[in-house]
Design a protein that fits this description.
This protein is an alpha/beta fold and 258 residues long. The protein has eight helices and ten strands. The strands form three sheets. A five-stranded parallel β-sheet has the order 5-4-3-10-9. The radius of gyration is 19 Å and the shape is globular.
Length: 258
Amino acid sequence: MEDTPFELGGKAFRSRLIVGTGKYKDFAETKAAIEASGAQIVTVAVRRVNITDRNKENLLDYVDPRRYQILPNTAGCYTADEAIRTCRLAREVGVGDIVKLEVIGDQATLFPDVAATIEAAKVLVKEGFKVLPYITDDPVTCLKLQEIGCIAVMPLAAPIGSGLGIRNPFNLAIIIEQAKVPVIVDAGVGTASDAAEAMELGCDGVLMNTAIAGAKDPIAMARAMNLAIEAGRIAHLAGRIERRLYASASSPLTGLIG
């Protein structure tokens, strides 16, 4: 059984796990967790983590851009204009033009503002950015973002940081079936089985932060997520058995002794 590489923005990656850099006790723990996760793509909140001032402690001193694909994100932005400006800043400081677009519409749930996300995506794609939008698990919205020119869609599994796991696998299945770009589950993963489930459904990747950083042992959880992503992907490619209402004998019935 052969697998194809995980391709994003014209680059190929071995790992299908994308990890965040927030909520760790310090940059040293962040670095250790990323290494344990096996991830090659690391997302960074431009407005919350220092990657612009080289005179202060800088995340990029711990997460080497030559080793990892840095994915700047617009966490904390509540308008399309804020998100667009944040992406432009990230490009100006040299972390590339592949960006995770996040425009929050509600402070309590941290659900995305769909209209503002679409508005910002249109502008950013026209400016040459390779956009990965965080969005609701709505098939119609995902199709619109794909048509705009986003290089992937990132439907949520559940609210950011909730750890609830995949709440609507049926919508995700529709999104995956319709997609011509990678589908990456973003937000809501709580433990390794959630990550495996996403991959078994046919998602191309999973992005997570709190599930690792908030664990009692972030390093061990990072390793667990690495294994879960790999196991879920292999299970998807292998093809699961059909669900049956009644039992089906695992041993052959031919040749039974009367």
